[in-house]
Amino acid sequence: MKLPKTYSESTWERGGKIKAHKKHVGKPMISWSQVETWFSKRGFNTGKLGQHEYFLKYFFGESFPDKGWGEFGNQTEDYICEKKGSDNFSEAEKAVLDGIKPLGVFQREIVIDFGEFVLLGYIDDMSKPVKKVVDTVRDYKTKSESSKKDLHKPDKLQLPLYVGGLQQEGITVKRAEYVVIERLGGKECMMGGGREALSIGERVWVEEFHFTDDMIEEAFSKVRTAAKEISEHYEVFLEVNV
Fold first, then answer.
1. Three-state DSSP class for 172?
2. How confident is the model at residue 229 (pLDDT cuts 50, 70, 90)?
3. How many Å apart are CA 156 and CA 32, to the nearest integer?
4. pLDDT tens across 192-214, in order?
């Protein structure tokens, strides 16, 4: 199997040098976001079919600059979990974020073994494992009131894959959840205002994510299908562009 990305030595080091993941160095690699893009009917950056956007980004190397959403989300998560970047937020915004109690294990690397390839991801925040049991896996989302409804759609693979990845390591997960932080200024950001147009609202809420074994297996199946299809296209691409 051939995929545009590889789980490299440097990737393993950035992920915390988890001993169990070392054996995967050198394998073709995919991510949950790549899989979602592949199956999407409308790519986030181009508005065209997801496969079209995937080809542009991962085959041809076209970059899609962050319009501010990613930077804002990363800054929010960094402040919640590690109190980094306090100058990125006003006192009122920090007061809202300070009300969120982090679980304690931040950006934990997940590498799911699919045999010929692996899937790489990072859990935003989770409880420290106790005797191979994790109480809660958490994903932070900055969302407007109008955009929060997509979190529980069946095509959302992030949390099922993270739970399944921990299970593959022999770790039991009791519950999973989204912590949603209200995001203001989305329209202004979309019109070119960038990160500066975005701010933290007053609302924070928790949405439990109810996962099942069937849901996790379905997510794994989608990953296998996407990887197979991408590999087939990528092999042709490499042959044509030698």
1. strand
2. very high
3. 9
4. 999 999 999 999 999 999 999 99
Q: How far is CA 114 from CA 1, 97, 205, in A?
A: 11, 37, 34
Would you state the pLDDT for residue 177? 96
Q: Domain range spanning residue 67?
A: 5-240
- pTM to 2 decimal places: 0.93
Instruction: Please choose, from the candidates 168, 217, 141, the residue with its C-alpha nearest in 3D space to the C-alpha of residue 18.
Output: 168
Q: Residue 72: what are its φ and ψ, rounded to 5°?
A: -65, -45
Amino acid 5 reads K
> Token pair for residue 109?
């690397």
CB 188 within 8 A of CB 63: no
CA atoms within 13 A on the CB side of 195: 12
Q: How is residue 221 written in tokens?
A: 């199946």
pLDDT at 154: 78
| The Cα angle at residue 180 between residues 208 and 140, in degrees rounded to 5 | 85
**Domains contained in the chain, number:** 1
Asked whether 197 and 68 are in contact (CB, 8 A), the reply is yes
CATH of the domain at 200: 3.90.320.10
Confidence of residue 149 (pLDDT cuts 50, 70, 90): low
Amino acid making up residue 234:
Y
**Model confidence at 152: pLDDT above 90:** no
Q: Among the residues of the chain, which ranges form H helices?
A: 9-14, 32-39, 50-54, 69-82, 91-97, 158-168, 186-188, 213-240
